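Memo to structure team: turn this sequence into structure tokens by end of day. - J.P.
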Amino acid sequence: MSENIYQLDPHCEAILEEYREHLPQFEETARKVHAMLKKVMDEAGIIVASIESRVKTEKSLSGKLELKGSKYATLADITDIVGVRVITFYSDDVDKVASAVDKLYDVDWENSVDKRKAHEIDSFGYMSLHYICRMDGFPYRFEVQMRTVLQHAWANMNHDTGYKSGVEVPKEYLRNLNRLAGMLELADEQFSRIRNELTDYRRRVQALVASGNLAEVSLDGDTFRSYLQLHPFDSLNRRIAAVNQAEIQEVNLMPYLGVFKALNCKTLGDIDKMVKENADAAFQIACYQIGLTDLDIISSSLAPQDVCIAAILRSGGGKLGLKMLLDNLNGESESNEMMADYLLEQARNLPFMNQVK
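Reply from structure team:
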């Protein structure tokens, strides 16, 4: 046994020596649990802020033994030599992580603690879920803590300020700490509530879009993304591609959200109406653009682009309207003005322009 450099009795020194002998095992277990939890979170699609792991240092363990070494018969009675912490963004994700941990390991329920339920109503303390676990092939238990980012911030603040650590805190500071803790707890609840409400909203939108009730769906990022899943420009793109027997290269059409908003579309029904009313004019523009070329690949953005060009010109938007379109798609630049002139000149003699007032 090594020299006793800590104030430990022989029993506690024996526990410390056992820790030294098995330290490589503890370090390997910490790495293994960390990697396993990360893999499971990724596979389950649970986005976490971080996963942390550590092995209790010899200094920390000796301090624990100095204070309450008689409580432990062997090293196996100390359940937090290996500790892993999973920090989530949302409070309801804590329970999802807990479910994953329960499936991975044998949880010692008698020694596990749900501090979310343990705090007093008038003393907010930090809340987290602590599972004491066992893993096949490893004789020692280890701890997995699960908490949210805000709960983690509160726990760190507790540690830094000495709040609830036996150090007396002046009442005015204590009151402010409790107020802040209450705000953090409320924020945690509201973040989860907002996420759940947004999820419900997206489901309702998808149902409305799928049923074809587009006039009832306000235009925003989520609804436009759902609309694009109906492939509303495919028919026009195929019609254009047939001119040169070209292939269609799929690209992201989300940048057109800003364009349609700038064209005063308030609902998905407004976009759908614009597409139907301007499809023939858009086809005329596309034929002029590619008809005399040997272009054999077109972008899937060609149809929405030419629909917007046609809608602008047919409504009398002219050069300023075309520049607005280009500014939205490409960012503002002097070249957009020249391109607007070019597009206007291209379309000037097309049949649909005879109907423009």
